[in-house]
Amino acid sequence: xxxxxxxxxxxxxxSAGFGLVVSIVISRELGAEIKGDHALFVVGVSIxxxxxxxxxxxxxxxxxPRHSIAFLVRLSTLWSVLSGGICGAILWxxxxxxxxFEWYIIISGILFACWNSYVTLLLGRQYNKAYNIIMFIxxxxxxxxxxxxxxxxxxxLYAFANGYTLAQAITLVVSFVWINSLPDExxxxxxxxxxxxxxxxxxxxxxxxxxxxxxxxxxxxxxDDFFGRAFLGVYSNALALAESVWMxxxxxxxxxxxxxxxxxxxxxxxAITNKYVPISGVVSAVGITILLLIPASFFTYLxxxxxxxxxxxxxxxxxxxxxxxxxxxxxxxxxxxGLNRVNFIGSLINLVVLVLxxxxxxPFFDEMTAPFSASVSFVATALYTIGMYYWGRRWQGKxxx
Length: 401
Known about the structure:
This protein has one domain (3-395). It has helices spanning 3-30, 32-51, 58-63, 69-93, 102-124, 128-150, 158-179, 195-226, 229-261, 266-293, 296-303, 310-336, 340-365, 369-391. The protein is an all-alpha fold. The protein has 14 helices and no strands. The longest helix is centred in the middle third of the chain and has 33 residues, at 229-261. Helix content is 81%, strand content 0%.
């Protein structure tokens, strides 16, 4: 693995560590039910961020080398504020946000969407060091503020809410200053004619992001409805542990994506992808194996006695994480080439299999319904994406922009 991947991996490991600190502190100090509220807080922010991605997020990585940075910053910021506010109000009206934390979630979601767009532009221009620094300091601040507030002023979930919101605000300022320091050769007048193309590209990415988000987090709401808020808290910790293995693949695919959007031929893009697939698969398999060898008593000690099922949940989630680790590399090939229809269809397959299987097997699997459904659906999506990479030649060369 090259230095860019190792730097990104270090950033993700540190971020995962800070996230684990947050999970441990909330679990041990406030209990499983409050940990469930914390999970829904994070999901609320994620939903808002999801709806801001029409002119933001991953689409900007593809557009960054091709359009004016100033134009993309203004467009993504305006859209983040408008769509984030509207989405947050809808979630509030539908009673999908934890009571008492509605404003925290809406404001945090908008701030997160804005700075995430800026760092994606940095990534698209191959400023990987700046990208990794910002992605490192954000969770560091969230964890640090939580610890200070929880043990001094607020021994409740408001310590997390205040600390998290403050961290998003500071990260926004840092990323805005950094992105505005970049050279920008293109003029706005050359870019305004591309609004229609940007919208068309964003629509496909938005659809893929929507279905992908539902694949990751719809189970949170299903678990909350059928198995209770406390079990949701346990499942969220198990998922966080399982996803810690996935950060290896994320680190690889982040560098892969940055290279592919700046590549000049499909053969070069495929050479990059073929190089990273076995690395991601082997390293992720080793990570999963190590995680499964950790005794269940350790997780009970780590999170508290309410979390005795964490180890078993991790076992059931392992096939999903391994499938995601491999499929993620192929998916980023399509994303880097602007072939977002492929990823959208893959995410849609995942969602349909996930929901249908959940309700079919729920009477037989009880609480293990969620991790089993996730594993089957993500394996199905990985197989589809791999199949499209090797046999879906008709998609090649058909960029959405």
